[in-house]
C-alpha cells in the first residue's frame, strides 16, 4: 500500500473538544486535512470549532454535539460529516473517560463508543459496498497492554478495544478498511479525574512509573501510525522515551521496548 497522504483527507474525530482529540484535529488541519469532530461538551465544542475555524478556515472544520454511546445520533452526525465533505477517509475513535465507580458508563463510552464508530465508519468505507476504503484508528492506552491495580475496569476497556481492533484487522480482506490502535502512556491530562477525585496524573503516578510523553509526541506518533506504508492491524505505543510500532511487550521502565521506529 502506498504511503498515506494526509493533505485533502477527511477526518472524523470523536471527543475532540479538548485533550488528545483536539491535538489530533489540529495536527490534521495543519497538514491540510479536513476535520469533522463530535463531542458531548457543546460549549467547549463550539469554542474549539471557532478557534480551529479561525486558524484553519471555516470551510475545513465542522462540529456536532454527540454522545458516542447514542448509536442513532452517532450515525446522524457521521452522515452530517459525509454530507459536508463528501466522504470520510479517517475515523478516529478517541473519546474516552476514566470512571472506576461507574463501570457501565465507562464500558459504554470506552468500548461500545469505538465499536459504534468502527461499525458506522466501516459501513461507509467498505469498497465491496461502494465505499472508497479508509482508515480507522481506535484509541487504546498503555492500560491496553499493562494491568493497573487501581484501574481494572479502565484496563478492561482499553485491552478490549485493542483486541477488537486487532481482531477486525484479521478480516481486512473482507471489510477493505484498515484498523489500527494508538496506545500511549500518560499524556498531559486536561479533563480526566479519577474515581477517587484525584487528578489522573496523581493516580497514574502510583500505577505506572513511565514518564509522560508530550501532547506533541502523541500527535506526532499518531501521524506516523496513520501514514505507515503497511498499517492494517498495526498499533503504536508512545512514551516519553520512544515510539514503537507492532506487537511489543510493554515494560514500565521502557527497557524492553524494541526500537522499531523513531
Ligand atoms: N490523557 C492520557 O494520559 C491518556 C493516556 C492513555 C489513553 N488516553 C485515552 O485518550 C483518549 C483521550 O483522552 P484525553 O486525555 O484527551 O481526555 P480528555 O478528557 O482531555 O478529552 C476527552 C474528550 O472526550 C469527550 N467525551 C467524553 N465522553 C464522551 C462521549 N460519551 N461522547 C463524546 N465525547 C465524549 C470529552 O467531552 C472531552 O472533550 C481517551 O480515550 C483516553 O482514554 C488518554
From TrEMBL:
Keyword vocabulary terms for this entry: Oxidoreductase
Keyword Oxidoreductase: yes
The keyword Hydrolase appears for this protein: no
InterPro entries for this protein: NAD(P)-bd_dom_sf, Sc_DH/Rdtase_CS, SDR_fam
EC code(s) of this entry: 1.1.1.141, 1.1.1.232
A GO molecular-function annotation: 15-hydroxyicosatetraenoate dehydrogenase activity
GO cellular component terms given for this protein: cytoplasm
PROSITE patterns xref list: ADH_SHORT
Annotated catalysed reactions: 14-hydroxy-(4Z,7Z,10Z,12E,16Z,19Z)-docosahexaenoate + NAD(+) = 14-oxo-(4Z,7Z,10Z,12E,16Z,19Z)-docosahexaenoate + NADH + H(+); prostaglandin E1 + NAD(+) = 15-oxoprostaglandin E1 + NADH + H(+); resolvin D1 + NAD(+) = 17-oxoresolvin D1 + NADH + H(+); lipoxin A4 + NAD(+) = 15-oxo-(5S,6R)-dihydroxy-(7E,9E,11Z,13E)-eicosatetraenoate + NADH + H(+)
Source organism, top-level taxon: Eukaryota
Record Gene3D superfamilies: NAD(P)-binding Rossmann-like Domain (3.40.50.720)
UniProt function note: Catalyzes the NAD-dependent dehydrogenation (oxidation) of a broad array of hydroxylated polyunsaturated fatty acids (mainly eicosanoids and docosanoids, including prostaglandins, lipoxins and resolvins), yielding their corresponding keto (oxo) metabolites. Decreases the levels of the pro-proliferative prostaglandins such as prostaglandin E2 (whose activity is increased in cancer because of an increase in the expression of cyclooxygenase 2) and generates oxo-fatty acid products that can profoundly influence cell function by abrogating pro-inflammatory cytokine expression.
UniProt similarity note: Belongs to the short-chain dehydrogenases/reductases (SDR) family.
Name the record gives this protein: 15-hydroxyprostaglandin dehydrogenase [NAD(+)]
